[in-house]
Amino acid sequence: MKNLLKFEFRKLGKQKSFYISLIIMTVLTVMAGISYMILLKNADAIEEMAGQKLPKSSTAFLLLFTSSSMFAMLSAIFTSITVCDDYESQIVKNIFARGYSRTDYYFAKLIYVFVATTLMFLFALAVGAVAGIAFFGFESVSDKLFILLLGQYVICMAGVAMCFAISAAIKKLGGVIAANIIVPIIIPLILQLGDSVLKIKDFKIESVWMDSFLTSLMDIEVSTGRIIVCILGAAAYTIAFIVAGFAATKRAEV
Predict the structure, then answer these.
(1) DSSP letter assigned to residue 70
(2) Helices 71-88 and 16-41 sit at what angle, rounded to 10 degrees?
(3) How far apart (Å, rounded) are the C-alpha atoms in residues 79 and 21?
């Protein structure tokens, strides 16, 4: 696997989709900061209509960085391209012909994608922090903020694992990108429909899905119990998607 990892990471410096994603994240985050500043100029009217206060701090802005940078969509597209490229260019056949197992290939590719998307996450986080300070000024950082950001990272990696599993199962770039964009949209809608039909008292099915986890951890006032549920739930999803993707790879024809 060591040689496979070296092969994978040699691609990173030349992978255009990686650098394009970073540029888009930067532009989107800056645009989000500017839009939010404009929004705050009409804060009184908006707060009166919404019945709640708008967050006006760099911390509040930073906690929204995964949303403002569109990390989920960009990492999904990056993962789709990375996984499908080997199949469409027939590189997989050459790798297997050299005696590498499907297990070695799968986990080398998975590690590469996790590392690359982690770098994307850290980059988006840094841009969000700089933009937040530039627009709203510097403020003291609490331990809870670090925990929330760590939780967001775990949830985002669960999303990457889901996209990786879908990519490993479908393998055709067009279908994979479509699925990795549509599936995260459809699942919450289905869960919301389930909630409206079942009407379970004091419980929402949607609350145990990744989107709900991420939304919860964008709020600095979220409870400790909810933080724990979100992080453990995301970790469980990550393991499940890794297993599913591995099963798809083991069965795949190349």
Answers:
(1) T
(2) 170
(3) 11
Q: Which of 65, 55, 74 is CA-nearest to residue 131?
A: 65
Query: The whole model's pTM is what?
Result: 0.90
Q: What is the dihedral of CA 179, 26, 109, 246, to 10 degrees?
A: -40
Q: Is 1 exposed, middle or buried (0-12, 13-18, 19+ CB in 10 A)?
A: middle
Note the pLDDT tens digit of each residue in 70-85.
Answer: 999 999 999 999 999 8
Distance (Å, rounded) from C-alpha 48 to C-alpha 52?
7
Q: What is the DSSP letter of 53?
A: P
Q: Which three-class secondary structure state does DSSP give residue 37?
A: helix
Which residue is associated with the tokens 């840094």? 126
Residues 30 and 104 sit within 8 Å (Cβ to Cβ):
no
Tokens of 62: 């930073």
In tens, the pLDDT along 170-224 reads 989 999 999 999 999 999 999 999 888 888 888 888 999 999 999 999 988 899 9
